[in-house]
Amino acid sequence: MRARAISTSASNARVGDGNFFSRSRDGRRAKTRARVGRGRGGRRIDFLERAPGMARRGRRRGRRARWPCAGASADGDGTSTAIFHFERGCAYGTKEMKDLLGSKGSGLAEMALLGLNVPAGFTISAACNERFAARGSTYVQSELWPDVLEAVSSLERTAKRTVFRSGCSLVGRAPLLLSVRSGAAASMPGMMDTVLNLGLSDACVAACVEAGFDERWVYDSYRRLLAMFGDVVEGIPKMDFEVALSQARSANEVRFDSELPAEALKKLCDEYKDIYVKHGKTFEQDPMNQLSKSILAVFSSWNNPRAVEYRDINRLSGLLGTAVNVQQMVFGNFNDNSGSGVCFSRNPADGTDKVYGEFLQKAQGEDVVSGVRTPMMISDLAGTQASAAEELNEVCKELEKDYKDMMDIEWTIEDGNLYILQCRVGKRTGTAAVRIATEMAAEGIITRDEALMQVNAKQIEQVLHPVFVIDETSAEYSGKIVAKGKPASPGAAVGAICFSAKEAKEMKAKGTPVILVREETCADDIGGMFAAEGILTARGGMTSHAAVVARGWGKPCVSGCGDIVFKNDREIRFGSSDKTFRSGNVISINGTTGEVLNASFPVAPSTIETFLPLKTFMQWVDQKRGIEIRANADTPEDADAAIRNGASGIGLVRTEHMFFSTTDRVHAIREFIMAQDETSSTIALEKLEKYHYEDFRGILKAAAGRKVTVRLIDPPLHEFLPSEKQLREGGAQEMSRYIGKSTHDIMEIAENMREHNPMLGLRGCRLGILRPSMSKMQVRAFAQAAIDLTSEGFPVTPSIMVPLVSTVDEFHNQRDLVWGVMKELAKENQQPPIRMEIGAMIETPRCALIAGDLARAGASFFSFGTNDLTQMTYGFSRDDSDAFIKPYIAKGLLRDDPFVTLDPVAVAELMDIAIHRARDIRNDIEVGVCGEHGGDPASLRTIDALDVDYASCSPSRVLVARLAAAQAACSRKEKVKTKPFAVTAA
Amino acid sequence: MRARAISTSASNARVGDGNFFSRSRDGRRAKTRARVGRGRGGRRIDFLERAPGMARRGRRRGRRARWPCAGASADGDGTSTAIFHFERGCAYGTKEMKDLLGSKGSGLAEMALLGLNVPAGFTISAACNERFAARGSTYVQSELWPDVLEAVSSLERTAKRTVFRSGCSLVGRAPLLLSVRSGAAASMPGMMDTVLNLGLSDACVAACVEAGFDERWVYDSYRRLLAMFGDVVEGIPKMDFEVALSQARSANEVRFDSELPAEALKKLCDEYKDIYVKHGKTFEQDPMNQLSKSILAVFSSWNNPRAVEYRDINRLSGLLGTAVNVQQMVFGNFNDNSGSGVCFSRNPADGTDKVYGEFLQKAQGEDVVSGVRTPMMISDLAGTQASAAEELNEVCKELEKDYKDMMDIEWTIEDGNLYILQCRVGKRTGTAAVRIATEMAAEGIITRDEALMQVNAKQIEQVLHPVFVIDETSAEYSGKIVAKGKPASPGAAVGAICFSAKEAKEMKAKGTPVILVREETCADDIGGMFAAEGILTARGGMTSHAAVVARGWGKPCVSGCGDIVFKNDREIRFGSSDKTFRSGNVISINGTTGEVLNASFPVAPSTIETFLPLKTFMQWVDQKRGIEIRANADTPEDADAAIRNGASGIGLVRTEHMFFSTTDRVHAIREFIMAQDETSSTIALEKLEKYHYEDFRGILKAAAGRKVTVRLIDPPLHEFLPSEKQLREGGAQEMSRYIGKSTHDIMEIAENMREHNPMLGLRGCRLGILRPSMSKMQVRAFAQAAIDLTSEGFPVTPSIMVPLVSTVDEFHNQRDLVWGVMKELAKENQQPPIRMEIGAMIETPRCALIAGDLARAGASFFSFGTNDLTQMTYGFSRDDSDAFIKPYIAKGLLRDDPFVTLDPVAVAELMDIAIHRARDIRNDIEVGVCGEHGGDPASLRTIDALDVDYASCSPSRVLVARLAAAQAACSRKEKVKTKPFAVTAA
């Protein structure tokens, strides 16, 4: 996004780009850098290396901007500014300056510039917090303090009120009271938040009363200051103040604080001061000391453990710190003609274009949020305060136009006058996001590209998956998180813990929803997994058995949750927590985020399949994106879902997953593996062929003529067997019953198959070459299904992909195998062979480098298996990498998990090399990406920048992937491709 | 090597290059291709697509070449020739035409061209064998036969004798008898070999006697034909003939066949014919039928199972088949003035420049080889046949000059005339090879470059290792081979089988040499391994524990011998053989070839350290080679050996190997791994630091100022623990005794460390980053050793290498770690830090691609870990790859094991990319290769072609590597490097 130019009063310089601050990639100290423009005379001006002048906007609300005496103070080291003033009509900042001014401060500046009625004030920048962190409180108390003092006097002049100083007369005017609020670039719970009514003191209160101000208002304001200052600055438990308040309500026999009479509030103030004493503190009576202490408290809170942890968890790095917003108080509790409220410019739940929010009369802002009284709906405001309500509507529209987004606004009405205290882009559900983006584009507020950029992956995903009814950003939600694993299969699920498949089936039969919790799952757990609402495993990644099966069913799953500690086989705990969870205890899991919650939150299914804005939105998406999106599907149901979600084909059928889905199939594949002679091998293969045929037929039919790419068997065969431990502990015996081989033989065969590094072992086409009967059977089943469907009149486009190729001869061998089977079938069916494309999967670095030779050897297409390619490029085992990738990210040694976000450096370079070499041989050779990266938005940006035709992802990620591909196309500087955009059937 | 130009009589075309035939890389049908030259008028002539004319040489022995009527016959399909004549002074072929004429045939043609006295004859080319294989005996009997008949008549004209036909008169001249001998391009035991005296029959014999020829000679020749033809053509057991012969000797009371009188021989002939009848055969009386049957027998023998197996084992692929040499018989058994012999132009055992060989008077060639009589030494020939002896000396010199090599010659004297029957390049010991090459160069017969190319890696290795006294190419040796594993540590060893370390130590104490045979070895086996003469393991590769330890000690070891089948823990068998080997049975192992032998061959140590020709030779080697050779050394003894062998530094110290060498060390490292708290971890590290310090000190001292590169700990820590099974079966209990942790704790810690794919797991710098205390200790120990030696006046050049880097930040982290320790030490030692270079090991494809960034990040040098790089580039686990690499090679899907021979395609390309990117940043950055490939000649050719500074290999391979590097430089077309050759201290 290009920011408009901003002129500075001091120099009339123009700044070309609003993106002033960038974070350094490695998480180290971010530099406050500014893009530079040219002054009028062509002189180069570094915007932020000088005190930035007051920014002006062309549009004003009829008022001339007045220049406060101290505009913005240059900091000691001259490299950045410390204090940024704002008042209605003018401000030393814009909404783009979030990094320096924080979200709140930049919003205030922006609104001031827009001419909205913002109480005047100033923002102490986040850079000061950084300096404080480096130099300690001396920085605030000596270096910064003169500037703060000057800023306050400037504010006094603007407000035409003064901070109360002893001996001051208040006749005719109220004292200048201040609000002090923190505000970083990203919202961050756990930090010091707000102190209101700062400036009140015993003397001031007395003077106010003497000057004739409403006693109730005065004491109400004072008791709020005492409680907040006590809590936030002095560290006195909030509860103590709340208990006293509650006692006061009882004593006065009232329900709400607002009904307490002045006398009671006055008494309460005294009690509050006693609470200070009880904790060995005294309330600070000097207003400027109150201010300095508050500033220090805000700055210090940046590094309190909760805030640090929050940033770690949310991977917020490179922030300077928090800014501090000091602002003239306006009073929603001033009289009956006053009130406070919050509102969204549109409905954040469903996106309807109507201001949505709540307010409380005669209350300060905190009351609305804290729920001390039930607020009224914003629609009722018109009844009580018609003009303010109308003004609020206008403000909403104006802010939407300015921010080009739906806004979340805090406001106060003081004696009939509307003040806007805060604005930010509003959070919304997926449904709302899609509707808002679509409608805003239709209204002309934003372009279609902007609409596409406004909806994020999570939101589009939310439209489709069951979700918690509770707001996932609320403290109530986040407070219940006990562990985090991999978001293996999206959606929310609640149920009683079960530790075995058997138990899960039993409890489900009794009508109890369950969450199956396992170390890892295997084929034997299928029944229990199906019975469960959701699956939680301690080990395994995004492609573990649990994850694959769960995604196939669209069942929520959190996998690889390393925090789970099995105390024994009936009890677990999470991480370092002592709390024991037993079988039957209810938990919630969020498969979209990977969170595990000690809670029983209600879950609602999302059923917006005929949601018109979504349809429109996805049309725009498809018109924009440069790559096709196909889906990985292992069952006809998967394929069906994928096509419904707009996949333009099935990019990957993982044949081996087909063996997992029922116990019979598991037995059949194990029978094949254990077969020591031709006959028993053939019998097992015949069984498997039947299963395969049905599945392939279903998938081809669901794809309705779109391309379906089947990958021949890929994993090492021993993956289909129980683990060594399981075999020892009865697994072999059980297998023996089904397979008719002795336990000893089974153990021996399994032992002989064991590998040191199965990921680099006998798998992929190596298996297809050395045990060709399995691959031949797969080709037969697939081709026969295609032949039969064709003769029944259904269109099919089948293709076969050879996995884990690293030499040209391997590809030759497998291509010959496929051709052999095709010829055989043609003979059997007495008709010419059907068209079957044969491609290679690029999963090893070597394969990437020889892609040209493979193209020359006749590969019809290529598909990058980016999971394996990442494993081999980094030398990271996906199954084991948790042990180092997590700590690497924590230490700043890795920015992203390369298994989640495609490495844009080396893996992408190998892909790029392969693509170039392949296209040098045959320019129109089809190139795709399959694997988990295909559904990840950040990875899709990388993929989009390559000359790739399609990405294939899991069916549930198809919408996300389509969107991400379109967003990548929006943010792409120029299209690398020489081909026209691929347009797909939506 | 450039071949001289050959003019063809038919066209006078010139062929520019003698390398007419090339084998197709994939082992499929080799095409008979010929390089083309230009005719006199500039017309393009495909040499072999026409019948090649008779080749002429400038130098003749005074005789004019006569053109036989049928020169060489064009084959039916016109693409190649079938029959190639030769006679003294002219021939239709040269020594370069081995592929078509076989080794024997091309040698005969060459000798004929040189004017040597070769009995006339013709060669039926190997291409005919190929056609026979495709079309069956019809090919020989109808298509080829007219040409053979014509060739025989031509030979009759040349020889001025005729094949005996009934009714023929032999008065005044002997009949034309023929020898028929097979001869492929490579020597190949197991194929049909020789039929002599072909043409004799009852009628012919009678006619000869009638014509007055010596009866003894006649019947001796006939009985030989009967026996050979019976054996070779009719498949009658040789033994039957030998029994009859032996009975004849007894009956006649003579010791040797040559003493049998004519009468006895005549009787023997009748008995032989009876043997035919006994086997349901009749001796073929028609000479031309004898010939056609013999040709068919030779052609068929190409594909008999023994021959096929031999080619498989020796990886001979792409051969057309065998040629058949039909030649006029000359008779060493003609009279007392006759004899047969074999000789080498120089001594093949020590290389002395003196003709060396044996001969028998009055004998045919087969007698010399078969040992029916003890032959005389060639030095005695001068006494009996002075002129023939002198002529033989001349022939030897002439052939040496022509072939530019030491020759192996078969000859016969018929009635005083010397005939040369066969010549080939002579096999020789390593010692002889070095001496011959050096002396031939000194004599001016060959250039220094040619001398370097004449000695191969095996030979130079042989100079240094203990070897079997028996000839390893003999049938006696190869017949004893029972299994083959990896040649893990070179040298020969003989001893009694022991299955446990304990047993090995006990038996050794009793004075019995033992071979320790284990599934695989671990640290607990150290004592037994040390006691053993050699080590044989069923599992593990070239870097397995057994291999590493054995190489460290210079003890022969064969590892990963998959043929071993453990019947129980006291008995094994090999492969499919039934024979059981028990503890105490004596076997031999050949660590140079990987062979296991059911034999007790004598072994001799090689002690030629002061062998002057070797010194000279290695000087030439060092002057020629373009890359430095350093050594991988893990102990001071290794380092010492390496420097003695001429290593120019220590390119890789694998710190982890230092933990294997004694039980105390194993306990200490396990203590560290099991340590759960800082204190116990520190105690364990202090122990390890002491061991490290001593080793590092010793290595640095041995290197005497040359660069020593230490690699920080690389393998996953669980590699130092017993296997899970071992732990379960008492290993944990034993560990518990030493480490003072409960068995349960040990099992649990080990369990938690287990990884799915340890090769891609928590190892290398990942370990150094996440458990830095170990790496810090290693740096401390190394740096302190360097500091101490410096202050004692010893020069040192220490450097540290970070393993398994895949991101720049990983390198940063480890570089900071090293710097931190260096600063600490400098402070402790109160002196400025010593110079310590820090480099990165390039082992992952990603690291190769970011080499430029690493160079920018300050890496002082790079070293390619080609083992890991190969694993990750191919996606082949070295530990598991036997399961597919072996069958791949057998199927022709891979030419070489990429862990033995560096992949010149993808792995080399990644290396090339890395080198270019690194040198783009800093042109003089040092780049090396460490790992097993550094000692492999084929790999060194690939390495030499890259812009690499050095290769590092095991100390025992240093000589080989130096030679291979020089040979690579010789065969390199042009030097890629821009730098001058590195000259190293030899």
UniProtKB/TrEMBL annotation, chains A, B:
Transmembrane regions listed in the UniProt entry: none
Catalytic activity annotation: pyruvate + phosphate + ATP = phosphoenolpyruvate + AMP + diphosphate + H(+)
Annotated Gene3D superfamilies: 1.20.80.30, ATP-grasp fold, A domain (3.30.1490.20), ATP-grasp fold, B domain (3.30.470.20), Phosphoenolpyruvate-binding domains (3.20.20.60), Phosphohistidine domain (3.50.30.10), Pyruvate Phosphate Dikinase, domain 2 (1.10.189.10)
Domain named PEP-utilising enzyme mobile: residues: 513-594
Compositionally biased intervals (Polar residues): 1-12
Binding site for substrate: R654, R711, E843, G865, T866, N867, D868
Enzyme Commission number(s) from the entry: 2.7.9.1
Region annotation Disordered: where it falls in the sequence: 1-38
Domain PEP-utilising enzyme C-terminal: 614-969
Domain Pyruvate phosphate dikinase AMP/ATP-binding residues, every copy: 99-375, 388-442
Necessary cofactors: Mg(2+)
Positions contributing to Mg(2+) binding: E843, D868
Family: Belongs to the PEP-utilizing enzyme family.
Protein name: pyruvate, phosphate dikinase
